[in-house]
């Protein structure tokens, strides 16, 4: 890049050609196709993370508390039971860290421990309605805007978006 380009000054056509005459080993490598989408996904991830941190901060929560609540809600939506062990595994926490997390969320009135009716030795975790209401008050408008945006896409486009996001999720899980 010339000094004029760095200062956003107009570049004369002959100067632009001269930049292409640089030796190949000094040129920036071209980004692979699709990198613009990778960068966009990274920006979306960053903004969602910042929104989550804002929600957590506004409600006296640690970001891990929010991840735990999301994990528990996702499990319930998928019909899966949540135990402290499964939650810790999903969040990458050891037993002591998981116990501290569950104790904190229970103390805040966001989750409850319940005995499994089939195996009284086992403890299940459930999200309290208070946590759901709290989450909806903050994330509801974002969810509504996202659903409205998705409604502008045809079914085939939505299927492509679903396939892409599922593939990214799976790729992250492999790492």
From TrEMBL:
SMART domains: HTH_MARR (SM00347). Gene3D superfamilies: Winged helix-like DNA-binding domain superfamily/Winged helix DNA-binding domain. It comes from the Bacteria. Residues 1-10 have a biased composition (Basic and acidic residues). PROSITE patterns: HTH_MARR_2. Residues 34-170 form the HTH marR-type domain. Residues 1-34 are annotated as: Disordered. Residues 11-23 have a biased composition (Acidic residues). Coiled coil: none annotated. PANTHER family: TRANSCRIPTIONAL REGULATOR, MARR FAMILY, TRANSCRIPTIONAL REGULATORY PROTEIN. This is Helix-turn-helix domain-containing protein.
